[in-house]
Amino acid sequence: MSKNVAVIGYGVVGSGTVELFMKNRESINKKIGRECDIKYILDIRDFPDSPFADRIVHDFETILNDDEIEVVAEVVGGTTFAYDYTKRLLQKGKSVVTSNKALVAAKGAELLKIAQDNNCSYLFEASVGGGIPIIRPIYKCLAGNQILQISGILNGTTNFILTKMIKDQMSFEDALKLAQQLGYAEADPTADVEGDDACRKICILGSLAYGKHIYPEMIHKSGITRVTLDDVEYAANAGYVIKLIGSVKKLDDGTLSAIVCPRLVPKSNLLASVDDVFNAISVTGDGVGDVLFYGAGAGKLPTASAVVGDIIDCLKHIHKALNISWEDSSLDEKFVVRYKDTNCSMYVRIKADDAQALKPAISEMFGKLMYIERENRPDNELAFITPNMVESDIDANLAILSHSAEIASKIRIF
Ligand code: HSE
Prior knowledge:
- It is a single chain.
- The protein is built from 14 helices and 18 strands.
- Helix content is about 35%, strand content about 25%.
- Helix 1 crosses helix 12 (about 300-315) and helix 7 packs across helix 8.
- It is elongated, with a radius of gyration of 23 Å.
- The strands form three sheets. Strands 7, 8, 9, 10, 11, 12, 14, 15, 16 and 18 form a ten-stranded mixed sheet that branches. A six-stranded parallel sheet has the order 3-2-1-4-5-6, sandwiched between helices.
- The longest helix has 17 residues, at about 100-115.
- The termini are far apart.
- It has helices spanning about 10-25, 25-30, 60-65, 80-90, 100-115, 135-140, 155-170, 170-180, 190-195, 195-210, 230-235, 300-315, 360-365, 390-400; strands at about 1-10, 35-40, 55, 70-75, 95-100, 120-125, 145-155, 220, 240-250, 255-265, 280-285, 290-295, 345, 345-350, 370, 380-385, 390, 405-414.
- The structure holds L-homoserine.
- The site of L-homoserine has 11 residues, from helix 7.
């Protein structure tokens, strides 16, 4: 029996990881081909009532300096301690698995290189899509394809909030509180609702698919805090639902277009029916066509499922780097194009004293567009969908319109 696994962080994902590993230890050990066990759980807190209280340690050096430890699950999150711990563990040849998307998105290229150089692995299946297998499918099963694009609902908390707003007309604030109680949200939920979490995830998927590190700073992101129940109603009347979508796509000249923002998704699109905390990621390859990955995108045991899968993989391939990697890049490289230079069509809601009177001017600006109605629409409100055009041209028109109306909402169409 080897007591060769350690877990750093005994929060939602950490406790789920320990619970799942211990529950299925017998079958897990059969898959690994030898007897393995969790030796340490590192946390600053004590857990006297936990059945694993005797495995709690407070000093990272205990794990780092124990030669029996082969694999460490870093589920503490953040980019400070987690970065330092991960680097030092990999430098010592211990494999690290993680759900920490912030760290992978910020330091992935560097940490993968350290793992390669030290014959160990840095795996992060749990960092995107919670329990959904998506990292391995992209770098293994779909390796024979050129990836044309990846689009998905990548944040469980915001999808949960939007679903509650759409289906139960619940307010944004109440839905967020509920998501926090259910353990879906980040420690600071700003990262969820402002789109940072989804942005980190699309960076990871894009880096993996296109072989070059995409940093979060390279991508335009906007969250869901400005989406209102009025927008939800207009969208529904036009045949859409509002979802927070992250996408990355290869353009004909080899550059990438990448963005995270709320979008009006046509109800006929499969992503439109992905509700609650579920995530779904659509990948288009030049050979395979479209494939869709769907499942629980957040939560204790779904995320633990991916962490434990990575632990098993590492324990099966000890002293061997599992070959995931991408090139590093510098922040000023221009391989991700400016989102304002790409085409889209936009849902717009405006407010003006006599909104109807602005229709001729709006039609003249945009050409053919679609006006949307909603029950009891106030006289001072108008909503429409622009034709597909370069985003900076849409903005130029809206800047002119803003002299006679307030631009209350602007949401891209998927
Ligand atoms: N806060 C994240 C989410 C957790 O809601 O999707 C999983 O990454």
